Amino acid sequence: MYLLIIYLPLMSFIVCLSSGRLIGYTGSKIVSNLCLFFCFLLSTQFISSSTYNNNINLGFFSWFDTGILSSNLGIHFDHLTNCMIMLITMVSLLVHLFSTSYMDGDPHLPRFMGYLSLFTFFMLVLVSSDNIVQMFIGWEGVGITSYLLINFWTTRIQANKAAIKAMVVNKVGDVGLLLGISGLWVLSGLFRFQDIINLSTFINLENIFNWINVLLIIGVMAKSAQIGLHTWLPDAMEGPTPVSALIHAATMVTAGVFLIIRMSPILESTPLILLLIIFLGSLTAFMSGTIGLLQSDLKKVIAYSTCSQLGYMVMICGFSHYYCGLFHLFNHGFFKALLFLSAGSVIHAVTDEQDMRKIGGVKLKTPLTYICIVIGSLSLCGLPFLTGFYSKDLLLELIYGESYLRFSLWLGLLTAFLTSFYSFRLIYYSFFSNPSSPIKNYLKVHEGQWNLYLPLLILLFLSIVVGYFLEGVVLINFSPPVLTSLSKSYPLILTLIGSIFSIVFIYYIKYTWKFSFITIILMVYSFFSKAWYWDFLKSQYIVNGSLKIGFIAIYKLIDNQLIEEFGPSGGSKFVSDKSTKIGYYYLGKLSSYTLAIISFVYLLSTYILLILENKKHLNYLYMLMIVNKWVKTNNN
After folding, report:
1. Which residues of 541-575 are buried (b: 16+ CB within 10 A; e: fewer)?
2. Which stretch of 268-272, 482-486, 510-514 has the lowest confidence by average pLDDT?
3. In this structure, are residues 193 and 81 in contact, taking their beta carbons and an 8 Å threshold?
4. E strands within 267-394?
5. pTM exceeds 0.90 for this model
6. Residue 536 to residue 481: CA distance in whole angstroms
7. Whole-number CA gyration radius for the chain
8. Suppose 499 and one of 135, 206, 420, 586 were both cysteines; which one would form an S-S bond, judging by CB atoms 3.0 to 4.6 Å apart?
9. By three-state DSSP, how is residue 254 classified?
10. 204-223 residue pLDDT tens
């Protein structure tokens, strides 16, 4: 049963890619969805089985063993793995089903379904591995598959650029993670998570753990889109909408948070790194919220909300509440998948228009999509009795007691205000604003087929009830903090203020737009709309600087001069010159060659005799004999 959960998506990938032409569109849809459906059914057994809270380790065989370096293939199922697999298989199944309608008519649909299944397979490998090397295979697998999915429409230049950017930025994190794994091996020679966790009991290794954890956090920053290495995630919106839902909801971006939770015993031995994690998470949440305020692309607004929520998850892990981070990750996967798929339904209905300022007024023609986006947005804001409320407010409540890290609380509360502002802004522009596109676009607006709105209905239901009914399943042995009613109400109050402020600002913008010409407001607007100038700074100081160093120092000095001088050009010139000079000694006489050979033999034998016998008089006698013999030869 455990192996089937992992191998069913791989079987779907193999069948869709190898036999896509044979089984056709319909066959690819049926095979991929059936494999994911059975995979989901098997994963639900963990919730009801008696082994849910037990650890299960299954070892298979030795992958490689070089004596000092060895690793086995195996899977490890514990509480963390079970929750992740449940989330991954559920969301992946709904994304597969949604794709059968959204991508209908695409000539490469079998390949797309195969890529989705391969992505799911690598994510399951990542979360179920019992050692960090095997986990790194899944880590790299989701990276390369995300490139294939983002760049699925290969004729779109922006999609190609976004896929390359995602690959390059993630490779920075991959290098950091690989160095961290190497550091763990040098320190202990161990790869299994259970063995690595046992290292945390050695209190005299804190300094070494600091460096190792810094490298691991670099990997987390890239994969989970934390501040500095987050720029790939909004650009990934160039891919098909089902790809956005799969990457940003339950799979790739959650891998970094999963790694933090999995390596939590090691992180607990390094308080300095926990403080760094708090800084990264809180700043990422606030930064993404400010950028999301001014985005006009429907999918990019939701993408920056993903960055913001990931910041919450990372931040709470820095406070050592790892399973609260897991609970928010679990809840977030459902309402964020609902938001992305609903956005895809809107885009599908209005003939692929993503600028929400040009959509407007479609709530009457797409009522189901309208309800789904409203519920998903309210759950994202954390309004009471929705899935997001049970985890998002809990994260902020757990920070109240941390007086010396009060900045993270204020940034978290400000992020809650910003989240509600841009969520209601999205709802207004998409459904309530006056239509601004040609009328022919609105004549074709309609809800999708059953396989497009069925996943939306399921996710709509889950976005309402999952947080309440599964809180006790995900959060085990957890006691919530005891706070005053006012303190517990701060997130809700700021959320309501943000939503009201957003509605008032939008309806009265015709009276307030003149204030936008104030210099300071223009500067703030430019700063936020340009995404804090992260792309500009990277291009100007990192990319251009690296190109200058590469051209002046590496190409012109090292490659063009040093390597050429001592390598191909210099070497060939040296050989040619010496060969010409040696050619002068070619006289065409046998006696000259005989003299050269005899001289070589003499020198060699003299050297050997000096070493072995150390008798100098024999050298002179031997030389006279050779010269005498050569004279006789010439006379004859």
Report:
1. eeeeeeeeeeeeeeeeeeeeeeeeeeeeeeeeeee
2. 510-514
3. no
4. none
5. no
6. 43
7. 33
8. 420
9. helix
10. 777 888 899 999 999 999 99
